[in-house]
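Catalogue entry: protein

Sequence with per-residue tokens
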Amino acid sequence: MEFGIFSNGFRPHTSASRTYDEDLYEIVLADELGFRDAWISEHHAEPVYVNKVDVLPVPEMLMCKAAGLTKQIRFGPAVRLLHLAHPVDVATLAAVADNMTGGRYMFGFGSGFPNPIFSRERGLSYEDRYPRMLESLDLVLKCWTTDEPFDWDGQYWQGKGITVLPKPLQQPHMPMAVATMTEDTLKMAGQRGYIMLSAGFDPAHVLRAKADVYAQAALAAGRAQPLRNVSVAKFIYLADSVQEAMDDLRPAVNLEMEYQRSRGLLKFVLAHYDVNGKDPQDVVFDDMVDLGIYALGDPDTVIEHLKRYYDESGGFGTLLLFCGKDWATREKRARSLRLFMEQVAPQLRDLKPDRVPEPVAA
């Protein structure tokens, strides 16, 4: 198993500059500790966040700065919302980031949380976001791999005499990744060898079902050991006890949950969980811990939690730890990452997701 972080930013408003400095601190520390990957969320402005929460709408800019402060860690957006920007600009930004990071850039894409505000404020249709994303992907790939100017007259995107420079440093292009709930996209990702990203909210049985769709398609395309190409983010926090960990996180997590209730994300996250008859809007942090969404406490407790989730989900190749949160203090967050790499990671590193995926029902 490999390890990485998922910098899924949510920090109460100070200034964007200070928030980005906190994100950079965690990325640099992750690099020093030996984490392989740093996936960074693309978060756009929403009215609920104004003067309350900082956002990072262009994660590639943070990656380029981080590249100069780190040695080996790889970077990728999780995820680039392909349906929001013209594919020529998306392809150009990604190719520059690949060159600026010295070939440590990965291209994560998806349609993102289903909120119509992002499409409509750009004058785009929300209802067509998914097919618009797929057409964008085709055009982005052509931009990276075509030297001669070309025209594009698609259903959603148009362009004349398109030429994109620079080309990606990694040839024919950087590693690709997708976060999706859509079966057709899971199959496409498996067939093409894209990384499958799981955002960390999926219960084990849901992750297993998605991974089976992905892996079956990969095997049919001749790709061996596809589950090693699955990256799963989990909420993980190490302390001296479960109680200490919960006390450290409770204020910050409950604050974030207030915003996710108003955005509708909390209901979306809990759709596959049995909340014992509770209205999902009434769920609090302690309930989320009881549901197993958080792996908290001393190293032995966290190891047991993660091994159980790994077994029940059918296995995966990379475990990502959520970062970008104002949990407890900077010092305690850093201690948690160190404890993970020193005491937890060695107990997980030899796990190999080599099971044969179960056939997908027609």
In short: The radius of gyration is 20 Å. The longest strand covers residues 2-12.
